[in-house]
Amino acid sequence: MFLTAAPAISGADDIQASLTKMLESTVEEYRKKTPSPDGVGALVFVAGPSGEWSAAAGLPEGAGPDSHYRIASVSKTFTAAAVMLLDQQGKLRIDDTLTDKIPGTEAPYLADSRRCAIPDKERLRIRDILSHRARIFDVFNTALPQEPFGGMPYAEYTKQSLNEPDHQFTQDEIIAFLAANKLQVKEEDTVKGYKYSDTGYTILAKIIERVSGKSYDRFLAENFFGPMGLKDTSAPWSAYDTDLPEPFLKGVARLTSDGEFEDVTECNMSDQIGPGNIISTPRDIAQWMRGLLSARGPLRREQVERMTAVPEGNTTYALGIGSTDFGRGHSGAHPGYVNLVTYSAGDDTAVAVVTPFVDYSRLHEHLALLNDVTRSTREILRREASPAP
Question: Which of 97, 188, 364, 373 is 20 to 30 A from 218, comparing alpha carbons?
Answer without folding.
Answer: 97
